[in-house]
# Entry
Amino acid sequence: MRIEYTRDSLTVSDLDPDPILQLAQWLDDATSAGEIEPSAMCLATSLDGRPSCRMVLLRDLNRWGLVFYTNYLSRKGLELEVNPHASVCFWWRGLERQVRVEGTVYRVDEEESDAYFASRPRESQVSSIVSPQSQVIANREDLELAASQITDTSRPEHWGGYRLKPDAFEFWQGRAARLHDRFRYSGGPAWVIERLAP
Ligand SMILES: Cc1cc2nc3c(=O)[nH]c(=O)nc-3n(C[C@H](O)[C@H](O)[C@H](O)COP(=O)(O)O)c2cc1C
# Structure
């Protein structure tokens, strides 16, 4: 099946000089368009030249970067501790748009992780506490039993945020006949915007 992308177009004059503001605009557009999980992004990490990727949710976006939360002892967490270079990719199907961001991750301040953890529903807090994310476990029952026994729901040390400080962005708008529009931002903070071939 070949899908034609005909919904929109993108020129340099459509783009904000600040890529963070441009990303914020496209996230708003995706939310308004009713995209499911508009803040979901595929996070690529890499160890010894072997990339791995998985979805995470963007939980904060400001001029310092993109924040997501996870288990620091998970596969992604351990990979990021060794190699902090990472990339994320958004895809909004209905809008026929893709954004990729590349940069370096840093752990967010403990207070910031505490504040976000405290804002989560209790069941999510409990799951983060009991799940040894990415490790082999014997069965589901042990996890559910451990979850039912939790009384203290303060943030565990192994769970918190990472901020991706971007050094490159690419905004992609699908076009007909695979002649898509692509623009790269590089060289921040005085960002240079260049059109790339599709
Ligand atoms: C839409 C979506 C959003 C997700 N969001 C998160 C998230 O914000 N944080 C997280 O740790 N895992 C999230 N997950 C689960 C991850 O994709 C992954 O299974 C988990 O983090 C373990 O990855 P790892 O073994 O590579 O560390 C999400 C999965 C999906 C499908």
